[in-house]
Amino acid sequence: MLTAAQRKAITALHRKKGRAEQGKFVVEGPKLVGELLESDLALETIVCTSEWRDAPRAAHLPMVTVPVSVLARVSALETPHQVLAVARIPDPV
Fold first, then answer.
1. CB of 1 within 8 A of CB of 66?
2. Paired residues of 63 in beta bridges
């Protein structure tokens, strides 16, 4: 379950100021999260529904299973997907 502080931190990442302050960003949707899992970027956490979690994907990563109603509260989308991920913004090269 997501705590109130975690929900607030994730929703802050939908704004440029929040991303700059935390050094993180949010990716939403199974396709984009799948691409993120294949990349070299550092994932902080995955917030998903139980349907998405049951599929064998990234069991070694920290996952938080939530109901769709909670996912809708932290999503920036009008119709939320089954998963979103929080990742660190890479340092500029």
1. yes
2. 46
Give the three-class secondary structure for 10: helix
Question: CB-based burial of residue 51 (10 Å sphere; 0-12 exposed, 13-18 middle, 19+ buried)?
Answer: exposed
DSSP letter (8 states) at residue 34: H
Indicate the pTM of the whole model.
0.87
pLDDT tens-digit series, residues 32-70: 998 998 899 999 999 999 888 776 665 667 889 999 999
Cα–Cα dist 81/84, whole Å: 8
57-60 long-range contacts (CB < 8 A, ≥24 apart) are none
Structure tokens at 58: 């990234």
Residue type at 89 in one-letter notation: I
Among 66, 35, 36, residue whose Cα is nearest residue 52: 66
